[in-house]
Amino acid sequence: MSEHFGALHHVTAFxxxxxxxxxxxxxxxxxxxxxxxxxxxxxxxxxxxxxDEAASPGSILTFFPIPGLPRGGQGVGQATATAFSVxxxxxxxxxxxxxxxxxxxxxxxxxxxxxxxxxxxxxGLALELVADPAADAIQGAARGDIPxxxxxxxxxxxxxxxxxxxxxxxxxxxxxGYAEGREEAGRLRFAATRGDGAIASVVDIVExxxxxxxxxxxxxxxxxxFRAPDVAFMEALRRRIAAAGHRVTPILDRQYFxxxxxxxxxxxxxxxxxxxxxxxxxEPAEALGERLMLPAWLEPQRGxxxxxxxxxxxxxxxxxxxxxxxxxxxxxxxA
Length: 335
Ligand code: ZN
Known about the structure:
This protein is an alpha+beta fold and 335 residues long. The chain contains six helices and 16 strands.
């Protein structure tokens, strides 16, 4: 078994205005834009990947930002919070930093012995910072007005909201290698037994038996991805997932990783993504995210794609009419 199996690889969410999304994750949270590409299934839509300096699995938060996309609804069948790790001594910095940027901060802990603060991105996506002693052992990188000492060190984990925790727990434990959950204050915590232990190894389940189903849209997570060390491992895991009765996709080429997807019984879309080849496969590590990268099959359409994509520059958004129209088209595609 690989030491990296099971920890989180990435989380993907929908957003509205692309320039606002980039400004928030780059300037306010200090994440690095590590890949600037398009939705391969809809090349008129950006796919922006944020992460740590090295674009490490376990630090990658990706967005499909679509101007005018209506807000989704949080509910069961979704990852309802995404948490990042920061050194415990950094929480006072983050409270002040977020307040300075006009972001309302909520005290959400203590949780399993750790302080937690909660806040939302400009589209309403629920985010958390966890005071994580493991973060002290990871080198941070300075970005904008965030000193290296306080930088986000990748994910801590995610919270899933489902109607019946047991069935989702069974997938985590029996297929993805998580340890049995510990319960605290209505929250079940599962840890990736074969993850690095340092980052992105926590999945919490909050059970909401009467909860309304969530709806896709801006400010809502679309899926979460777990790490697989390589494609051979993924092939074996895919057979086990299918044998357990889940409908699982073939292995898909996502350019920066290979992927399989299946919907766990609680309704959350799960992906398993391979660590290789990684994000430095089509551009050098020091220049990640600087230019639009397209897979070979879209390269012939580069000119048209570049003209169609909304600007990522602040203050250069579409007019309201174009925005509304793009939003309703996008909502139909998403649905
Ligand atoms: Zn994904």
